[in-house]
Amino acid sequence: MGRWWLLALACMAVATVRAEEEEASARLLASKHILNRYLVEDMDLVVKYTLYNVGQTAALDVHLDDFSFPEEMFKVVGGQLHVKLDRVPPQANVSHTVVLRPTRFGYFNFTAAEVRYKTSEDASQIQVAVTSEPGEGAIVAFKDYDRKFSPHVLDWGAFAIMTLPSLGIPFILWFSSKSKYEALAKGKRRRDE
């Protein structure tokens, strides 16, 4: 019976030491967000990556790689899809933004990016993590987006030109009859004087 207590005590001591070692190392939480409300063909698409270090030491040699944007569907306008950071301090966060331009419309599955880092300077094993996945999004054709959100100045101009005869002709007829009656009324007043 005494041996079981001794064995249980030894297991708890090992677990406690192991937990303290893990808490002392760097731990990154990564997120990936699409910041646009509408995803439109040939318009900018903003992707924000955020890395949070919730550990007690700095994360070193951090690599953020996103292979989910194929070159035949997206053109990189600003930023980079493969980023190397020397370190992420403990209890801090780092953000990175990429501006892309979709070249095709349709549904696209936005998958996770990969994050690789060392948990400490003497760590021999590289820690691998993935970001959150924004999921599937519909990239709208520019023609459809423009049809829905443009001010339609040309359409309103054509409408005004087409309604002008139906409003202008009755106004001209009314104005000419009004002028005739005013001229007759003035002539009558002069005769009465």
From TrEMBL:
Subcellular location: Endoplasmic reticulum membrane
Record-linked InterPro entries: TRAP_beta
Membrane topology: Single-pass type I membrane protein
A matching Pfam family: TRAP_beta
Broad class of where this protein is predominantly found: endoplasmic reticulum
Residue stretches spanning the membrane: 156-176
Keyword DNA-binding: no
Record keywords, A-Z: Endoplasmic reticulum, Glycoprotein, Membrane, Signal, Transmembrane, Transmembrane helix
Superkingdom: Eukaryota
Gene Ontology CC terms, in alphabetical order: endoplasmic reticulum membrane
N-terminal signal peptide: 1-19
Role noted for this protein: TRAP proteins are part of a complex whose function is to bind calcium to the ER membrane and thereby regulate the retention of ER resident proteins.
Family: Belongs to the TRAP-beta family.
Subunit description: Heterotetramer of TRAP-alpha, TRAP-beta, TRAP-delta and TRAP-gamma.
Protein name per its UniProtKB record: Translocon-associated protein subunit beta
Biological source species: Cloeon dipterum
